[in-house]
Every structure is written in C-alpha cells, then in structure tokens.
Write a structure and sequence with these properties.
With 139 residues, the protein is α+β, with helices and mostly antiparallel strands. The protein contains 4 helices and 4 strands, in the order ααααββββ. Keywords: Hydrolase.
Length: 139
Amino acid sequence: MAVIKTTNKHIDLLARLMRAEAEGEGQLGMLMVGNVGVNRVRADCLDFTDIRNLDDMVFQRPGGFEATTKGYFYQRAREVDRKLARRAVNGERFSPAERSLWFFMPAGDCPEQWYGQYNTGRYKSHCFFSPTEQDCPTI
C-alpha cells in the first residue's frame, strides 16, 4: 500500500529521477534515491513544508534535484525503473536512506554534517543525511 498519494505520471517521474540520480549506483542506490524523494513528500518540515506530491518534490525550487537540469532526466521511464519507484512509494526503506531528506556525492569522505543535518551513512558514492525525529516526526 502506498505511503503517499501517486498517479501513474508521478511514478514515471520518480522512476526517471531515480535513474538520473543513481543509475550508476545500481538498483539499491536508485531505491535509496526513491526513499529520499518519498521522505520529502511525507516530511512537512524544514525545507519541505510545501511539498505535497512527487511532482512538487522533483521540481522543487530552490533545493530540488540537479538531475532535472540535465537531458538524461527527460528520457522516458523504463518498466524496470517504474517497478523500483513503486517499491519506494509502497514504503520499502533501505539503510542508510530510511529517514534521509538529502544526499550528495562528495569527492572524498562523507562529512559528519551537511547543512546542519547528520550523516546516516554512505552507499557507494552517495552520502545520506537525515533530520532528527524531533525536527521531522512524520518521515
């Protein structure tokens, strides 16, 4: 059962984002990007108080995803990517992205904090950062 409201258009959008941001990280890396996207819709805290659906999340400005500024993001969603997006929307969570709202790819080690949020771990080249439960209880 979905943890956020979605449409087929939203699933395609999330699938394209997951592929564009993390195809090189494999399916697990893509699922973690999906976790971050779904968490931003659920969060209603910090930088994400006006995010009501996946369309709002993907195209949030400022603070949205860099992938949306590049042509690779605008390819058609593949069925394999749609299946991964549905898993994320249905609430499957993967460490270290279970409660993450941010990730980025540093040149070296992951910093302990990034914009005041704590590092929860690294998967391949991406570092993930999560708010405290006090700051964002609805994730």
